[in-house]
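Deviation from plan, reported transparently: heme C complex.
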Amino acid sequence: MIATRVGRRQASRVGGCCLGLVAAVALGSAFAQEPGNLVEKGQKVFVEQGCYGCHTIGKVGTQGMATDLSHIGAKRDLVFLKSWLADPSAQRPTAHMPKIQMSRADADAVATYLSSLR
Ligand code: HEC
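Because the crystal trials were delayed, the predicted structure below was used instead.
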């Protein structure tokens, strides 16, 4: 009997939580459509350009080669990220990261994606 009552109370709490989440996601996509799309595109470019060949984001990627980029957005701003991708050695003469050829639009998308990783 007691177990059933607790079960119901928990169920309603979970329900409330999910509704809140759905509302937040809906609001987020309504107000931030453009950056949201760029982040998605940037995530794709990151894979296509082989960034995972040297970097990790979370548990994905190559360990021990270069910096983990899981929280790069908290460390570097969008302006730095864009200029870094355009030419790492122009930002830091001792940089080991190669200059990676990609379109300006792709570079902007990757920079926006990275800057969302906080
Ligand atoms: C050949 C290996 C290699 C590849 C491929 C590579 N990187 Fe890097 N990256 C590095 C290394 C090494 C560093 C550390 C700084 C340095 O010495 O260049 C670095 C640094 C960075 C930084 C700066 C981190 C900081 O804390 O300042 C960013 C951002 C970054 N890489 C993003 C990318 C993205 C996006 C791609 C794909 C387009 C990419 N990297 C592909 C090797 C690589």
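Confidence is low (pLDDT under 50) at residues 29-33. We consider this an acceptable substitute for the interim report.
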